[in-house]
Task: structure prediction
Amino acid sequence: MTIPDIIKSKDKGFSIEVLPPLKGKGIGQLFENIDRLREFDPSYINITTHRSELVYRSTANGLYQRVTERTRPGTVAVAAAIQQRYEIPAVPHIICSGYSKLETEYALIDLSFLGITNLLVLRGDKAKHDSRFTPNENGHSHANELQQQIRDFNEGRFIDGTEMDIVAENPFDYGVAGYPEKHEESPNPDIDLFWLKQKVDMGASYIVTQMFFDNDIYFAFVKRCREAGITVPIIPGIKPFSTINQLTILPKVFHVDIPSDLAKAIMACKDDNEAKAVGVEWFTAQMKGLYAGGVPSVHIYSLNATKSVEKALKNIF
Ligand code: FAD
Result:
């Protein structure tokens, strides 16, 4: 089943997003986190993908060695492990950042063999040491170029133009990212919307939004998308506040506004435990408001906030 089919079949559905474990850590903690949320019946589980980053390692002679390392490898394997263990559809993220077209092709072959055909297709974050996004040599610059590669793959063509002997029976279906408060690099909301419409016209079957903390911003974004002729489901992405310093980190990293009422409540917290309680309350109200507004599903950035998400879901279901 595709994600649009899954969400259509379920009232008040939600998905969760998890990170692959850090290199060297086992998968146990990830399973524990999923176990906590499983009783609420998530419709599907997204698995993020992380590009390689420059790291400095100290060497025996006291100097530092600069190496490029992927600190969270294993998205495809984690997706397969989740689908096998929980029988919940897994949605791996496929990104341009840090990947060549050929590496992506290999990942698509692996996923196709595994029967994992629901994807989220993204450009990916820039490298931490870069001031702006730089594509990999032989990689893609934007999500829509990656979409073209997936379209060719679905039609039986590899990147070098050769044809597959056997074309997979189940083609890849995928969603793309949308930004209710505009993508950070976009000159204005209309141009951002122009590119979003291009991604949908190229075959994205749904949109997942960047996180937001004010539901009115989401509903206004959906209205603008509909006016621009975008008809696919637009799944709101939300996350519970869990630390006081997220008050400055979230706007900086994700380019989102924190509504004044929430900001004031967090500023009044004495410690992160109090911030977590405020976060759960806000998240619960947000999720209830989204359901009341008839959203197709809710995407939860559960990442490092599993316990808060669990508390909120207990309030809701
Ligand atoms: P694009 O669609 O390529 O857009 C990037 C910018 O370029 C936008 O400003 C857009 O308006 C503009 N644009 C788009 N197409 C073109 C074009 N053809 N020509 C010129 N300009 C264009 N990052 C990760 O690294 N790993 C993840 O797992 C991950 N998961 C995410 C999940 C969700 C739900 C969301 C919302 C984001 C996620 N991100 C992830 C972050 C995302 O990769 C970044 O926000 C990235 O900067 C943009 O990705 P995109 O797919 O929206 O890019």
